[in-house]
Specification:
4 strands; four-stranded antiparallel β-sheet; alpha+beta; 140 residues; globular; 7 helices; 39% helix; binds guanosine-5'-diphosphate; single chain; 17% strand
Length: 140
Amino acid sequence: MTERTLAIVKPDGVAKNLVGEVVRRFEAAGLRVVALKMVRLDRREAEGFYHVHKERPFFPSLVDFMISGPIVPMVLEGEDAIARTRRLMGATDPAKADPGTIRRDHAASIEKNIVHGSDSPATAGFEIGYFFNALEIPPR
Ligand code: GDP
């Protein structure tokens, strides 16, 4: 099934000049970038994006990290895009990520892990709408 998902190059990825590298990996795998921008979140916006994690011990640190610099959210489209994006990213903890994944190759830690990808169709719907309005996304 053709799906859309939200991916983000996180502040560490932007700081390390990996925007192009992350996009290249998605495109090389056959995913299509249908929307993309650079934004800097404020604290309230980052807390809202990660609201499902608000009770987790790492939440304050995660929010500080996500507002530490600009990020590059994008909408990716393709067959099975949600699962494929997550496979290309690798496990949350780069030490546990498969060889050849973005996180294994580039992430510094379980928190500073370069890239985000939606984990379900419902999450993708919420997350795409968080960053892109209807005028910024091509109709299907
Ligand atoms: P993801 O779907 O692989 O991004 O992982 P999660 O949804 O579980 O967590 C969201 C983000 O929170 C991760 O990508 C990390 O940036 C951060 N994170 C997750 N687990 C930890 C942790 O144990 N410690 C810290 N400091 N950050 C974490």
